[in-house]
Amino acid sequence: MNTINTVVLNFTVAIIDFLYQGRDFQRFWVLEEIARAPYFAFLSVLHLRESLGLRGPEHLYLMKEHFAQTLNETEHLEYMESRGGNAYWIDRFFARHLVLAYYWINVVYYWMAPRAAYHLSYEIEVHAAVTYAKYLALHGHDDKILEIMNDEIQHSQELAEAIRLIDPKEKSLLVESVK
User: Fold this and answer.
1) d(Cα 130, Cα 104) in Å, to the nearest integer?
2) What's the CA gap between 116 and 129, in Å, rounded?
3) Nearest-CA neighbor of 108 among 100, 117, 99?
4) In this structure, are residues 84 and 18 in contact, taking their beta carbons and an 8 Å threshold?
5) Residues 59, 142: Cα–Cα separation, whole Å
6) Distance in angstroms (rounded) separating the CA atoms of residues 129 and 46
7) Going by C-beta distance under 8 Å and a sequence separation of 6 or more, which residues neighbour residue 153?
8) Can you give the three-state secondary structure of 23-69, one letter per residue?
9) Which range among 50-64, 66-80, 85-99, 163-177 shows the weakest confidence by mean pLDDT?
10) What is the predicted pLDDT for the residue at 177?
11) pLDDT confidence of residue 53
């Protein structure tokens, strides 16, 4: 599943990077709009599992983490809106339709293969941190972008911890420093 996650991620990133060349804040806004979907999906599935009596020992921890991640991603989204990221209807149309599909894909994926769903989100968060680091390297220091980049690194660490909670044998995901 990890290989499929990597292929899908690389393909999607290539398309978004092509569509948003030279439009950093529009691209960031689209990515932040989409970034919340997995956490909403994870929470939805966790609520359903709880309702069905399928709650595990990690359940409350995961719910708290995913809710906090959702709030943090929403803060990033609002910042990108303040920078004009959602100024064009085509960007809003693209992101909101993509997020609907991505949400439902994550609901099914998390229900059926939570470790793989976490891995995909982990890879996306690492990619986001790298994307922000590249922006900073090209455009100079920006306190808010640096803060968002660090949040993305933190999210990837939290997702790695979620994987370890549901699969204690997992030791391979280590967040490397972003260059």
Assistant:
1) 26
2) 20
3) 117
4) no
5) 37
6) 27
7) 125, 126, 129, 175, 178
8) CHHHHHHHHHHHHCHHHHHHHHHHHHHHHCCCCCCCHHHHHHHHHHH
9) 163-177
10) 45
11) 93
| Confidence grade of residue 179 (pLDDT, cut at 50, 70, 90) | very low
Please state, in angstroms and rounded to a whole number, the distance separating the CA atoms of residues 153 and 143: 15
Do residues 80 and 86 make contact, with C-beta atoms less than 8 angstroms apart? Answer: yes
Q: For residues 178 and 135, what is the distance between their CA atoms, to the nearest angstrom? A: 12
Look at the block and give the residue holding tokens 């960031």: 28
Q: Return all residues near 130 (Cβ < 8 A) that are at least 6 apart.
A: 178
Across the range 147-157, mean pLDDT stands at 96
Q: What whole-number distance in Å separates Cα of residue 177 and Cα of residue 179?
A: 6
What is each CA distance from 124 to 6, 89, 110, in whole angstroms? 9, 25, 15
Q: Which run of H or of E encompasses 82?
A: helix 59-82
User: pTM of the prediction?
Assistant: 0.89
Residue 74 structure tokens: 């929403």
**CA 39 to CA 4: how far, in whole Å?**
20
* C-alpha span between 142 and 125 (Å, rounded): 19
Instruction: Give pLDDT, residue 1.
Output: 79
Q: Which two tokens stand for residue 57?
A: 């020992």
